[in-house]
Amino acid sequence: MNIFRLAGDMTHLASVLVLLLKIHTIKSCAGVSLKTQELYALVFATRYLDIVTDFISVYNTVMKLIFLGSSFSIVWYIRHHRVVRRSYDKDQDTFRHYLLMIPCMLLALFVHEKFTFKEVMWTFSLYLEAVAILPQLVLLQRTRNIDNLTGQYVFLLGAYRGLYIFNWIYRYFTEPHFVHWITWIAGVVQTLLYADFFYYYFESWKNNVRLQLPA
Amino acid sequence: ADENDVKDEL
């Protein structure tokens, strides 16, 4: 474990807590894409298949349980909570996210490190996570007003994988044979997808104005 | 997960 990865995990945890805070306290999911939340639940479900077979550390297991539990409970809140679901804008959250799942699964079947069920599912989760934010970014561009918590959620979610890139650079130079092109490329693509959001997020922070994405 | 595996990450 290095400082970049710990910072990345804490940033990821913070993004999940910000979203749970928003949904649980103000009982609203306005501006939040259910599609992205469903994709993330699938990402964690396919990435953490080894949670029962490979024990790595208490930290690793606890964090996996937190990410699994939070992503599925957020999906439940938006779909079934009698108050929260009323604030879900299903007419705006129209990204066809199965069009993201299918190419990711096909790519995972062809491009992976080992052709085993767990490895292909794990690789699928990497590809899917890289594009999982798209429905959320599309929704943000449609709903003009982005509330602070949603903006902070997206920022933290994008920043965590960016920190992981520093972690991979660090591990490359400190661990022999630490080469994982699939993970690296998926992580860089994922972070680049946030590039324009980061730009407008910093602009709004610098000029102390409300975050607005161009139409 | 062996030493330099990336599976020890989240």
Automatic annotation (TrEMBL), chain A:
It is a multi-pass membrane protein. It comes from the Eukaryota. GO terms for molecular function: ER retention sequence binding. Pfam families: ER_lumen_recept. InterPro entries: ER_ret_rcpt. The keyword Signal applies. Keywords: Endoplasmic reticulum, ER-Golgi transport, Membrane, Protein transport, Receptor, Signal, Transmembrane, Transmembrane helix, Transport. GO terms for biological process: protein retention in ER lumen; protein transport; vesicle-mediated transport. Residues 1-31 form the signal peptide. The keyword Zinc does not apply. This is ER lumen protein-retaining receptor. The lineage of its organism: Eukaryota, Viridiplantae, Streptophyta, Embryophyta, Tracheophyta.
